Amino acid sequence: MTLNILFLSITIKKRRISVEEAIHQEMVEKIYQENKDRQIYMHHWM
């Protein structure tokens, strides 16, 4: 009789972001929102 058992452990750690990464992420979100607003405006304008 053979018993095969697989043990798997996963470790998840919260990633800390630096100040530069946080500023970059805010800029990306701002540009994304501006482009989205511009697309909505152009769609309603047509």
TrEMBL record:
Pfam families: Bac_small_YrzI. This is YrzI family small protein. It comes from Bacillus xiapuensis. It comes from the Bacteria.
